[in-house]
Amino acid sequence: MDAPRTKVYAALSRPRNMGEWSPECFWVWHRGTTAREGTGFVGFNRRGPLVWFTNCQVTVADAPHEFAFEVSTFGLPVALWGYRLEPAGEGTRVTEYWRDLRTGPRARVTELLGLVFTGTRPEARAAANLAGMRTTLRRLQRALAG
Prior knowledge:
The protein is α+β, with helices and mostly antiparallel strands. It has four helices and six strands, in the order ααββββββαα.
């Protein structure tokens, strides 16, 4: 990104911005502007005609190095999403990462909910998220350039 880490971090730590960058998330309900560790927010997502919401909680807010949050639905853990920021010349290298939290005895329930609400089979979720991360990072880069 052609922006300093402080500017990139400031953009990422405003959950409402995700509705502009993500190909699935179209709106975020969050009371404040900048999120800190422990801050909660709700993401509203869409894939084709399917719409669903997720509950999110910020787990890492280490400006200007990393921002991450856990996602759950109906009290079941779904995923960890995060961004690592490193200096890269005059700009910032942004690495978006995702970890599947659909594990343990209730994983099948979470996978079934994911299929019903998102239309994505559990075995296809990683590929869908990778494509989504590429889109998100391109949109973030355009937003920071403007």
